[in-house]
């Protein structure tokens, strides 16, 4: 085992990529009020989205995408796979209707044959590689094989023992399909399509995987996951899964097939059993994912080898069955309004980027007043927010309640931290909004204000009313929560004020 690992590590990898990494989006259509293809393309253009994946080959959508330059991956739906995998003529007809009829006006660059066939439609697995070959043959006959790749997305669940990545391997029961599949991808210089969902890995880990590790949040070196066999450090679940796939291919002696992630994302809303499906977590994950992919850093096993990724997905799909989270993976609603505004400073104008700089952090509706109080105490204490504007007689004193005051403190901290992902959470009682919470003479940090001015948000020093220890006074609202708030507030501040 040790010798095999050493040989794998010493193998000179020939995995390569022809271009810089890109971020694309999946376009699902399970909406009760699905926008028209023209509206979809208008949104893509407005958000500078240059790569999309369709779950079918809808004719109206392909026509709408014509002459836009947007790179399109079309798909053979699972229900059509058996017919195509058993008939070269059926495959050729599919390509003629759904590809040849649209290129070059529509920039089709890939065909995804089925989706997660091995795990969702195993009875079709025996004809999967035949379907790939028949589709590819039709492209060769039309001289399109050089510009259109053919592959098939797989669920990461086909990888067993995914951590440490160096010990990962594909489910051996699928070797009769996986080996010829990898041979096909290698011979056609295509890529391995993989769906990567750290959200589900986190949910299924029963607390073993830290939330920060799933969300790409920075970890101290002693908290990073280390592969004991390779000594490679992993700072996020995404990289670990991708490298597990690379090692799994290596054990089957395939070391030159790049990976494209065809689906990845985080739900913005869930039911009571999905407490981490929140707007802030979805924003944090997708914002950090985009940065991570576009910096072309690759993975610990293959640094510098890009892992282009399609975000799941463009729209919330209210017609999808299942738990609440299944309906809430989208970046936009059916009216093309952003579900949340991604924090993409430095990543260019892409998707629902905060190009107007007008996002704010506010107290979440219905949040527990005790939790708000504790978070307010932290913000005005250890968080070093200037809360002088909340003192009696100051512009933001009224309304004098914990919701209004915590909203001010949350937003001041959020703006001070340059709206970094994860800085508008406060144990789940805060959320991001595009509505300016300023009111009357109380102009919130981040707002241009009526006179183009706003309170100072850059100082990290305690305000002038602080005690000599550098800790702010604690504000309380409502006798019912007083005792709990005192205990929580004192505990929070004592960690900083000792």
UniProtKB/TrEMBL annotation:
The keyword Transport does not apply. Residues 359-444 form the X8 domain. SUPFAM superfamilies: (Trans)glycosidases (SSF51445). It is found in: Cell membrane. It catalyses: Hydrolysis of (1->3)-beta-D-glucosidic linkages in (1->3)-beta-D-glucans. Keywords: Cell membrane, Disulfide bond, Glycoprotein, Glycosidase, GPI-anchor, Hydrolase, Lipoprotein, Membrane, Plant defense, Signal, Transmembrane, Transmembrane helix. The keyword Cytoplasm does not apply. Its EC number is 3.2.1.39. Residues 1-17 form the signal peptide. One of its GO terms (cellular component) is side of membrane. It is a lipid-anchor; GPI-anchor. GO terms for molecular function: glucan endo-1,3-beta-D-glucosidase activity. GO terms for biological process: carbohydrate metabolic process; defense response. The chain crosses the membrane at residues 474-497. Belongs to the glycosyl hydrolase 17 family. This is glucan endo-1,3-beta-D-glucosidase. It comes from Salix brachista.
